[in-house]
Amino acid sequence: MQNVVQAHGAAIPTIGYGTYGMNSQEVHRVLPAALRAGFRHIDTAQVYGNEAEVGDCVAASGIPRAEVFITTKVWVSNYHPRHFGASVDESLHKLKTDYIDLLLLHWPGSDIPLPEQIGALNASVKAGKVRHIGVSNYNRELMDDAIRLSDIPIVTNQFEYHPYLNQSLLIESTREAGLAVTGYCGMAVGNVLSDPVLKEMAARYGKTIAQIVLRWLVQQDGVVALSRTSKIERLPENLAVFDFELQDEDMAAIHARARPNSRIVNPPGLSPQWDSTEP
Ligand SMILES: NC(=O)c1ccc[n+]([C@@H]2O[C@H](COP(=O)([O-])OP(=O)(O)OC[C@H]3O[C@@H](n4cnc5c(N)ncnc54)[C@H](OP(=O)(O)O)[C@@H]3O)[C@@H](O)[C@H]2O)c1
After folding, report:
1. Is the pLDDT at 279 greater than 80, yes or no?
2. Torsional class of 237: left (φ above 0), alpha (ψ -120 to 50), beta (otherwise)
3. What integer is the mean pLDDT of 17-26?
4. Which of 87, 91, 223, 244 could bridge 78 with an S-S bond, Cβ 3.0-4.6 Å?
5. Known binding site for substrate: residues?
């Protein structure tokens, strides 16, 4: 039985395998091993250009489709009502499936009014092509608007979250609205791996720093963590975070690693006005 986060009827496997930046060869090399290791949640996106390879690997795995949770994201250039539905059809075709478990709006930056974007997301569910819908990189205000505009519950907001980035305001609002938080860049592009506090903690728990950070993420209520590794031997390591618990003071010590200017993913023209927790 997978460890899952429940949100508005969606049961989202708590650790997802992220495929950002992986080309065709990489996906074919690593994803079959990730599925064998036990990953049952795959995160891709139209703009990653690897949905077809993700679809190939899931189909070839022999794992029943119902046991794999596939998230993809509509790219901003497809938000126009003329393109949205066709882009979802193309994602379905590439993923070689007749439904997407979770479809997200990838970034807010777009001239297409939000009601139209949310309407198109809803239509994809009503057409039976998508099980659950969500948003990504939304601040609190946009998330509230999306929730209000949607007939069908929004189940997650996916955004950057790691020990150096304080997201307490956004997390509190996301949780209060009953959405799952899906955290990306948990390793802060590798920066956490040389952190002295995390290093000491890892030694004390007999775990790796990556496991300490993943455990810190998923030990928080309603948090799903995405994880990407190109190293096949690290796949089981990144899933093995459910057999230990961080003490409260260690959870707090990791939260206290947050520092200003630590946001990594901030593309101009796509990002919203982020909710700041900095003075
Ligand atoms: N919605 C969005 O806008 C958005 C933006 C960014 C990311 N995402 C999603 O979130 C996913 C995860 O974020 P991310 O790709 O930045 O991944 P991440 O898991 O935060 O970091 C990946 C880095 O951590 C290293 N790493 C992973 N496990 C490790 C371990 N056990 N020991 C040592 N190093 C380890 C990897 O190196 P090795 O390969 O050498 O192991 C890689 O350099 C993405 O792939 C994507 O699916 C979404």
Report:
1. no
2. alpha
3. 98
4. 87
5. 106
pLDDT at 249: 98
If you search the block for the tokens 């997201």, which residue do you land on? 167
**H or E stretch covering 123:** helix 114-126
**37-to-33, 85, 150, 222, 235 alpha-carbon distances in Å:** 6, 34, 36, 23, 6
Please check whether residue 31 is in contact with residue 42, taking contact to mean a CB–CB distance below 8 angstroms: yes
CB of 56 closer than 6 angstroms to any ligand 1 atom: no
CA dist 258 and 252 (Å) reads: 11
Q: What mean pLDDT, rounded, does the chain reach?
A: 97
* Catalytic annotation, residues: 48
The answer to whether the beta carbons of residues 271 and 109 sit under 8 Å apart is yes
For residues 220-248, average pLDDT: 98
In the 8-state DSSP scheme, what is residue 274? P
Annotation: binding site: 106
- Cβ count near 142 (within 10 Å): 17
> Is the CB of 205 within 6 Å of ligand 1?
no
Report the greatest alpha carbon distance in the chain: 56
Distance 55 CA to ligand 1 centre (A): 20
Query: Atom 4 (ligand 1): residue with closest C-alpha?
Result: 184
The predicted-structure confidence for 77-125, as pLDDT tens digits, reads as follows 999 999 999 999 999 999 999 999 999 999 999 999 999 999 999 999 9
Specify whether the CB–CB gap between 17 and 41 falls below 8 A: yes
Look at ligand 1, atom 28, and give the residue with the nearest C-alpha: 229
Which domains, and CATH codes, for the chain? 4-255 (3.20.20.100)
Find the 187 Cα to ligand 1 centroid distance in Å.
6
| HEC string for 137-189 | CCCHHHHHHHHHHCCCCEEEEEEECCCCCCCHHHHHHHHHCCCEEEEECCCHH
